[in-house]
Amino acid sequence: MEKAADKTIITVVGKDTVGIIAKVCTYLAENRINILDISQTIVQGYFNMMMIADPGACQKPFAECASELEALGTEIGVSIKCQREEIFRKMHRI
Fold first, then answer.
1. 41: which strand partners?
2. Apex 1 CA angle, 29 and 3, nearest 5
3. 3-state class (DSSP) for residue 63
4. In sequence order, what are the residues at sequence separation of 6 or more whose Cβ sits closer than 8 angstroms to the Cβ of residue 67?
5. Residue 36: beta bridge partners?
6. In what order do the strands lie in the sheet with 8-15?
7. pLDDT digit string (tens) for 4-24?
8. Average pLDDT of the chain?
9. Is the pTM of this model over 0.70?
C-alpha cells in the first residue's frame, strides 16, 4: 500500500504550446516515476496541469528530480513545480 509521503504533486503552468505533456511525461518515464493521476486544462491559451506521481522506483533523490523538472520547464517555457504530497497537504489545510 502506498503511503502519502511516497507521492509527489507536480504542477505545470504556462502558455500552451505543442509537446508540453509529451516532454514532461518522457522525463517521468525515463526516470521511472509513475503517473498515478493527471488533470490538465487550457484556459484562453494558458496550460495548467496537475499530476500525482509515485517516484518510488526512481533512482535519483527527490531534490534532483525537482530541479531537473524545473529546468525542463524553463527550457519549454512553462513553470514546473514538485512537492511531496505530505507537504502539499499540510500547506493547503483549512
1. 48
2. 75
3. helix
4. none
5. none
6. 34-43, 46-54, 8-15, 78-84
7. 458 999 999 999 999 999 999
8. 90
9. yes
Alpha-carbon 29 to chain mean position:
12
CA angle 88, 89, 94 (to 5 degrees): 120
Handedness of CA 40, 37, 94, 12 (dihedral sign): negative
Query: What residues contact residue 64 under an 8 Å CB cut-off, 6+ apart?
Result: none
Picking from 41, 49, 40, 46, the residue whose alpha carbon sits closest to that of residue 69 is 49
Query: Contact, 24 vs 75, CB < 8 A?
Result: no
CA distance 29 to 23: 10
Are the CB atoms for 15 and 77 separated by under 8 Å? Answer: yes
CA-wise closest residue to 14 among 70, 66, 73, 69 = 73
CB atoms within 10 A of CB 31: 16
